[in-house]
Amino acid sequence: MIKALLYKEWLKTRWFILGATIAGLLLQNWLFMKTGRSLRLVGAEHIWDVIINRNQFLFTELKYLPLFSGALMGLAQFLPEITNRRIKLTFHLPLREKTITAWMVGYGIGVLLLLFILQTSILAVGMSVNFAPEIVANGLLTVMPWYVGGLWAYLACAFVALEPTWRQRIPNLLVTVALLRTLYLSDFPAAYQKMPVYLMALTIVLTLWTWLSVYRFKIGRQ
Amino acid sequence: METVIECRNLTHYYGERCIYENLNFRIAKGRIVGLLGKNGTGKTTTINILNGYLQPREGECLMLGHKAGQLPPEIKQRIALLLEGHVQYAFMNIQQIERFYSSFYPNWNRAPYYELMKKLKIAPGQRISRMSCGQRSQVALGLILAQNADLLILDDFSMGLDPGYRRLFVDYLNEYARAENKTVFVTSHIIQDMERLIDECMILDYGQLLLQKPIDEILNTFKRYRIHTEREPQWERLSGILHPEKIRDKVEFYSFNGPEQIATQLQQQNINTEQLKTERLTLEEAFIGLTGKY
User: Fold this and answer.
1) Is A93 on the interface with B (CB under 8 A)?
2) Residues B73, A80: C-beta atoms closer than 8 Å
3) B100 and A219 in contact by Cβ < 8 A?
4) Is the full-model pTM beyond 0.90?
5) B13 in A contact zone (CB under 8 Å)
6) B240-261 pLDDT, tens per residue?
7) Fold of the CATH domain B3-217
């Protein structure tokens, strides 16, 4: 049954997964080409100086890629469910509602994690060709909140989409947008390096919020 | 006889608006029961309560002996559900959706599903979203038949269907349910064709259940009466008369009372009953007679 449930999620999201993977690869390829060109034109010393002394991050174009990936994944997965209240069919499947929700959200987070791990691995490998391990580690710490933002955007979509009433959807949306905003307050490299516990705790809270929307759906809030 | 669905003292409001109060009904195993009512009388509300998508303000429903809203997975496997508008996973094609559902139901039988799909003459890879409403209804029906459930719940199955597809749906469902001794609970606000399907009828009016009776009993006992008279009868003095109407000298009303009883009551008001006409009704006419035109 779980396999069939995941099959349904795959059917809904396969084009998104393909598109997001290609978009990520193209963007990263372009960033590496741009960095390579800069290294050749202005020299490695200058680029290193910019990174170390002027605290610049060379891959800021990646900033909103995870956010859009997470949001689009959420829409691809949950829009078909709320269209015509199709979610009723899903909750009529012979599984407990909590099990269904957990597997659906788990699938989305799993796909995004794979996608994000692929992107950050390519980033780490690509950076390590030209930069010292300390700069690579700093770069990964810089992108960390952006990728957490991708997961939060996905969970926010699930939370807002599964909520049965528009009246409640709007405050839900505002709260989640405000939360997401906190991840994009600073472009300073590794600005969020001391906050992984806070980020992880809020990721868990957002995951649980999804169940709140399902609960409200179950009791028939209209 | 074993009870499959039971609702006790069901009360529900949307805000201040009362949908119904103290609704009680039972559906026995093997019966095909139609819940009929005008728009907004609470048919879909009842389906939502039964399937656990809505908590009633008061009262409770049991399905196959389990409280609605808390059905364990093994009970859900025995209940097939058709949502209003034949909603299905429109992003799947007919093969994908069959493959998807077959994993959930141990008694799955794909033969009736593909038999119906053959009639549609559609490509196996065609997505449900690209089908007509009639074709989608057949996909939804095929899936219900394949599930081989003990209880079938169909919410407004006739909505959006042309007469041909409606008849196909009714005939298929009727034959299947009777041959396999399935219990069917169906709602509709289109009464045409329901006579061919249901053996028991529940009629909801605003705020209450008007009646629950076998179809034959309704059609044999509930009549329309017409009479030509200049004088309008004093309706408040007549018992068991429903929705009387006088247009010029024509008086029309409905009643479960027999012609003799009606004639006696009218004669007591000095109304000549020589031309009193008694008419046998179709289910649709009986529905209008019970709920009124407005």
Assistant:
1) yes
2) no
3) no
4) no
5) no
6) 888 888 888 888 889 998 888 8
7) Rossmann fold (3.40.50)
Q: Per-residue pLDDT for B192 more than 80? A: no
Taking the C-alpha atoms of residue B246 and residue B235, their distance in angstroms, rounded to an integer, is 11
What are the sequence ranges of the domains in chain B?
3-217, 222-291
Task: Answer yes or no: are the C-beta atoms of A81 and A90 closer than 8 Å.
Answer: yes
What's the rounded Cα separation, in Å, for the pair A162 and B173? 33
pLDDT along chain A (222 residues), means of 10: 93 95 93 86 81 79 91 94 89 91 94 95 88 85 90 93 88 91 79 79 88 84 68
Contact B83 A80 (CB under 8 A): no
Phi, psi of B36 (to 5 degrees): -110, 150
Strand partners, B197: none
Q: What is the ipTM of this complex?
A: 0.82
Domain boundaries in chain A?
Answer: 2-218
Interface of A with B in 58-87 (CB under 8 A): 80, 83-86
Taking the Cβ of residue A219 and every Cβ of chain B, the question of whether any pair is shorter than 8 Å is answered with: yes
Q: Beginning with the edge strand found earlier in the chain, give each strand of the sheet holding B223-228 in spatial order.
A: B241-247, B250-255, B223-228, B277-280
